[in-house]
Amino acid sequence: MARPRYPKSSGPLPPPLAPVARTVGQLVAETLKLYGEHWQAGLLVGLPPALLSGLATGFSRAETLAIVPFVGAVAATASFVMASAIVGGVSLRSRATVPAAIVGVLVYLPFPFLAAVFVLPGLAWFALIGLAVPAALNESLGVGAALKRGLALGRADYVHALGGLATLTMLVFVTQIAVAMTLQGYADNSERIAAFLAGLVLSPVLFLGAALLYVDQVARVGTTRAERLAVRLAPRDTAQ
User: Fold this and answer.
1) How many of the other CB atoms lie within 10 Å of CB of 25?
2) How many angstroms separate the CA atoms of 218 and 196, rounded?
3) 190: in domain
4) Total domain count for the chain?
5) Is residue 33 part of a domain?
6) CA distance linking residue 51 with residue 75, whole number of Å
7) What's the 3-state SS for the chain?
8) What residue ranges of the chain have pLDDT lower than 50?
9) Who's near 77: CB < 8 A, 6+ residues apart?
């Protein structure tokens, strides 16, 4: 019997694009790589939203709208600040942690009401100004300066910011539902436990990805779409 022939490798893959030209697909890939390298810290990032997911499971719509905006603001802010510290290599003992937390709560509060209509308005809001959180932490900015910086970063390449957040959100949301349903049917896990475990493992992808998106947007400030496209199309050294 003839052995099947497999296509030969065309050689080593080119190195990832620089943040100034990184695609949404590479943003997701780099996020998963980062999560794998820091999985223990990543689970800590996932703990606040996991606790919220377990708590909110079974709530009515009225209860969700009354509780999630406030408790969710604290949970999401804690996770995003931790993720930003991991990506930026900043200590959470830094003085910038408190302003970053305040900014996170301010940015998050409108999100549930925007997302209640349809998730896209919420993502559009966060893409526009949400990067104020890692800006406050990594650049040691006050609340007002961080919000202005976040707006500038969001506008640097808004299509990339919104596309990146939308892709990360869909990836986490769809996978989390599938994992929660699988866990719920395995070993008779309750709905709350399944939601908690799924959130614990998967939600860090969203926050770490958003923190990496900050790096992309910082690199894009002051650049044009044509300049970013030129970097993307330039030959890359595969030997690196």
Assistant:
1) 10
2) 33
3) yes
4) 1
5) yes
6) 8
7) CCCCCCCCCCCCCCCCCCHHHCCHHHHHHHHHHHHHHCHHHHHHHHHHHHHHHHHHCCCCHHHHHHHHHHHHHHHHHHHHHHHHHHHHCCCCCCCCHHHHHHHHHHHHCCHHHHHHHCHHHHHHHHHHHCCHHHHHHHHCCCHHHHHHHHHHHHHHCHHHHHHHHHHHHHHHHHHHHHHHHHHHHCCCCCHHHHHHHHHHHHHHHHHHHHHHHHHHHHHHCCCCHHHHHHHHHCCCCCCC
8) 239-240
9) 101, 104, 105, 108, 133
Give pLDDT, residue 60.
65
**What mean pLDDT is reported for the chain?**
86
Cα 95–97–99 angle (5° rounding)?
90
User: What is the pLDDT, as a whole number, of residue 223?
Assistant: 92
- Could you tell me the residue range of the domain that residue 163 belongs to? 20-232
Return d(Cα 101, Cα 48) in angstroms, integer. 14
Tokens of 23: 């695609």
Rounded Cα–Cα distance for residues 73 and 67 (Å): 10
234: exposed, middle or buried (C-beta count within 10 Å: 0-12, 13-18, 19+)?
exposed
C-beta separation of 193 from 182 below 8 A:
no
Report yes or no on 216 lying in a domain: yes
Q: Hey, how many other C-beta atoms are within 10 angstroms of the C-beta on 8?
A: 6
Residue 217 lies in a domain: yes
Looking at residue 240, what is its pLDDT? 46
For the record, the structure tokens of 176 come out as 């989390």
Structure tokens belonging to residue 111: 């999100």
Q: Which of 142, 107, 137 minimizes the C-alpha distance to 125?
A: 107
Query: d(Cα 58, Cα 67) in Å, to the nearest integer?
Result: 13
